[in-house]
Structure formats: structure tokens, C-alpha cells
Amino acid sequence: MIIVQSPLRVSFFGGGTDFPDYYRKYGGCVLSSCIDKYIFVTVKERFDRKLRIGYTRTELVDRVDEIEHGLIREALRKTGVTEGVEITTMGDIPSAGSGLGSSSTVTVGALQALYTYLGEIVTAERLAKEACEIEIDILGKPIGVQDQYIAAYGGLCFMDFSSDGGIQVEPLSLSTQARRMLNDNLMLFFTGITRQADAILMEQKANIENRLHVLGEMKDLASLARKALLAGDFDELGHMLHYGWKLKRQLASKISNPYLDELYDKARGAGALGGKITGAGGGGFLLLYCPREKQGAVRAALPELQELPFQLEQDGAKVIFNYRRSARKPSSEKRRRKVKVLNNHQLSLQPEAIQILPQPTGAAMPSRSLPEYISQMHATLDQLPMRDVQRVVDVLHAARMEERQIFIMGNGGSAATATHFVCDLSKNTRNAACPDFRVLGLTDNISILSAYANDEGYENVFLKPLNSLLRPHDVVMAFSASGNSENVIRAIKHANERKATTIGFTGFDGGRLKEMVDLCVLVPSDCIEQVEDIHLILEHMITREVRALGMQAAGQEVPIGRAGMVRWDREHVRNLYETSRQLIPLMERVEDIRLVLRLMIDRLAGKSGSILVMDRDGAVIGAAVAHDGEIRDLSQEDALEVLEKGLAGWVAGNRRPALVQSTL
Questions:
Q1: Which regions of the chain carry the CATH code 3.40.50.10490?
Q2: Hey, what's the torsion of the CAs at 361, 364, 365, 366, to 10 degrees?
Q3: pLDDT tens track for 622-659
Q4: How many CB atoms sit inside 10 A of residue 462's CB?
Q5: I need a labelling partner for 70 at 20 to 30 A (CA). Which of 237, 355, 611, 655 fits?
Q6: Position with higher pLDDT, 105 vs 336
Q7: CA-CA distances (angstroms) from residue 310 to 92, 221, 469?
Q8: What is the CATH number that goes with domain 384-553?
Q9: What is the pTM of this model?
Q10: Cα dihedral sign, 523-527-532-536
Q11: CA distance 225 to 527
Q12: How far apart are CA 224 and CA 629, in angstroms?
């Protein structure tokens, strides 16, 4: 007998953008998590050739084609198991119409169990992909792809769906304390309503082209929620859930109803910051984000609902029991060669479960540390000091235009980054209308480097060339993960004495280098590999930006998306106007106003902006301003001054949109 435990899920943001009909044109993204509520799939060999399927009913058939349970039938076909097995499914909660992704959970679990029966270990990616093929391509269900992937991968994940069909799953790495804090603020209630989601999803699918603006906002919101989550801003996540629910209700007519609206309003009135009906909507479970101190009041406001306590689950579908006296080959020829025969009565006891996993010859299991490494990289990138990075760009652009010399140095992996930077600045920024970069790598002449190391000591290999070449106001850049390399420290000290501009790229706590340079870009990580990875990413970012600034200085058009620059033409202003017109009616509180401003700036790749909301009489009822990524409320006095003197006043007075080159 083989038992697979396959987790259910809660989807926080982006549901609907994972429909193939949408993301294959426009791209999509979803933030979702498994929970510790499961569907268990068992596979047991029978003494005869019949197939027995047990779920809310029992089927006993001779051939796969006779099975009425579509998910199990197609899983059998996909794996090539055609006879002599008994399959049962059991759930922790009633699965039909729950909104917790149960159909995909069953499909992934069935595939995992059947492949284990065959003695084959498969990756999470393959399980998810084949589950999507079964549900969407073969059975024609009007659903997205997030449920299959989260059930296979497990954990708390951000999933990106690209227009070329590629799917990237990013496990979000939270500390134990942060995960507990998030979990403690989440509540789940059964509404008492089960429904067939297909009708809602079919309407939602049919409405895609008419709801592009809503789906676009939901996609942007998922990306913002990922950032808030990694930053530990969980209350902001609650406000975003409320905003996302208002967006989702526009996708189809039956996603909500007066009863569900009443439940949600009661929960919000009692202290929940936000929430949503899980899955397609129309019933199932009500997910809420509510600070712990308000949860008693929320329970009191919803006495008719049954609460389902839960924890976020880190594992995807997995085998928890595997015991067979012998392995029986399936009838399908394409699978026979893959069967592994276990020794009679082979049994293994483990702390969490009883399990025997067949070990494939010559194959390595993917390490859990690989996705964790990527997740940690994402988290570190989100914490980079971007203002300092922008200052580096400004210093390098000025040095280029004034034809000052730039020197770059580093040791080991940092030497490779320094050389790479020299190459990119020298070659990839060339523009006939601008001066070329005058840049020299202090690590690149092995003869000079080794001569100074041999005769003067390695601690002086960078100082000595600088002594010959450096002039006041030149730029000296150093890459050092620790910030304590002696040869770098001596060179920077000399550069400071010669009144050069000094820049350091470092990690950890910044070391001595942080305190010595005029400008330090510190990667907030204690992992040297990730520090060096991000130094190279920063080098590429800076190269793109200075290239764009050179084009701009030459009066050349900078393509949209190139180094974050935006060409402000009528199309973009029209986009801004339409976006604001669609979002303003959704706003209820200042928190929503700030969120709308953030979404608009993010959509247009901007850095700063402001938003004023007025009633029909022209009175300001809310205002916010953004500068360099920080968003704050605009005081009533400042808002009135903007109305009196600024562009917003003209727009408000004339009731017309305006296009200007600059408001400065």
C-alpha cells in the first residue's frame, strides 16, 4: 500500500491571472500557500485485474475507460497503470466546492501515488505540469494553473507565469518568527456554502478580455504583496487583501452574494483588516487577515460560521507510507522498464511517517537548499539601498561626461566582477554623441600585479599603480565582500588622500571599507556567494542606467523598460488617467489611496507622484504623495496649496486631464 499526503491551499493574490488564456498573452503572477489540511490518496495492489476507485462513491470496473472519476481515470492513463489496483481518496475536510484547490490536490496526489507504485521518482515540476495537462488540456476545466503547482511544490510561493508559457515558482523564505506571526494573523471560516466552481470560472474566463484592467491591477497587487511579505509588513498585506477582494468581485457576477458580503462586512467591522472568499468564490471558506487582539471580536461577530484552525504547510505532495510485498509490473509496455522491485516485507520507520522511497540509480534528488538560495536572493535584492545605487550611477555618469578616469579593483571573485565592470563600461555604453568611459581595471595586468606582489607585498598591489596614475577627482571603486581586504583598504586610503571620489561595494557589516569611502553600496547578506552574485547584478544594473543617461544626454530616445526609464508620451498619460479612473471608485480609506498610488507608480515604472481625491464639490477627502519609493499622507494644508498652485488644481477646476512636460 502507498499513501500520499497532498496539501490544500489558500491563494492570497493574483488568482485569475493564472488562466492560460490570460497569462499567455499578458503574463501573470500569484501569491499562494499550502496549509496543513490534506487529501490522502492511497494505491493498493489487487489480487485480480480489476480497478476499484473509492471516493464519495465506489467504482469497480474492468477497464480504465469505464472509470467515471475523470481525475483518477486520466492519472491512470498518464502513468500507464491500467489494471489491478485499488485507489481511494480521503480528505480532512469536505473537498467539493471548498475553494481550497481540492481537485488539483487530488490530481497531484494521484500522480504522485501512481508513480511511486511504479517505483519512479518524479519532480514537483513534472507533477504540476502533468496535473495541468489532465485538468485543463484533457478534461477542459476552465481553471488556472496555480493550484497544481502549489500542491506539487508546497510552501509559501510566488509564482510567475510568463507570456511565453514559462512558469517560475519562487519559495518565499520567512524566518520561523515571521512565519508564525503571519500565521497567527490569519483566520479561516467555513461559510456553510458549497458550490460547483465551473459556472463561475467559465464566466470569469469569458470575461477576460473585458476585465484586462482589473486583472492587471490584481497582477500588480500580487507583486507588491510579495515585497510586503518579505519585508515583514504583514498588516499592509491585510489591507492589500481587502483591496484585492474588491478587485476580484468584478471578475464574475457570482463570485459574491449579499450573504457573503454581509459576513465579510461583519468581520471587517469587528477588526479584520481584509480578506476574501477562497477559490472561485460563491461560497466555500472565508479567509481573513486579523490582528490577534481583534480575533475574539471577529469570532463573536460570526457565530454562525465554523472556524477552521490551520497552519501554513511547507511541504508539497509527498509519500508518507510505502509498503509492498512485491512490485507488480503494469500492463503498459512504456512503464515496465521503470519498475523497481522492493524486497519482501521491506518497511522503514521514520519520525513523521512510515515510508520507503525507491532510490533511482544514478539520479540525484533536488536539494531543498536550491530554491531557498533563490528565495534568499530575492529577499536580499528587495533590501538593497537603491538610493546609494542611484548615487553611484550619477557619479559615474558625471565622470564620463567630464572625461575623468575610473579605477576598479577587487580580489578573487570580486576581481572577476571588477574586470567584468571594466568591460561593460568600456564597450556596452559606447555612444558616438558622448565621451567614452575612461576606465581601468587594477586587477587586469597580471605582469604588473605579480611584480608589485613579489617586490612590494600583495597588500600594495593596488596602491602602487594608483600612485602613478590617480588624479584629483578621479573615481576609485572597490569590490570587497568583507570590506576588510588590506590591499583594498590601503588603495582607498591613498585615493582619499589624493581627493578622488571613492566608492565601495561590500557585504556583511561593511567592514572598514564602509567607513572609508564617500559612497558605499552594502549588500545586506552574510552569505559570501550571494554578496558576490548581487555585486554582479548591481554592475549590470548600473551599466544599463549609465547607458540610458548617455542616450538621454545626447537627446536620444530611451526605450521604455531600458534601465527603468519611461518615455512620457500621450499613451502613458492616457494609461495613467484610465488606471486612476478605474481605481478611484474602489477606494474607501487613506490606506487604499496610498495603495492606488503605489500601483500606478509601479505600473508606469515611476519613482515619484501624488494623488488627490475630491468629492463632487471639490473638497479634498484624501491625498498622498510618493517620493523615491516612500509613500506618505499629504497634509490638508499641502493639498490645498497643490490645488491652488499646482496642475491638480487646474485639472480639478476644468474637469479635464492635462499633459505637461514637467511640473517643476
A1: 384-553
A2: -160
A3: 788 877 667 777 787 787 777 777 777 777 766 666 65
A4: 29
A5: 355
A6: 105
A7: 11, 25, 65
A8: 3.40.50.10490
A9: 0.58
A10: negative
A11: 26
A12: 12
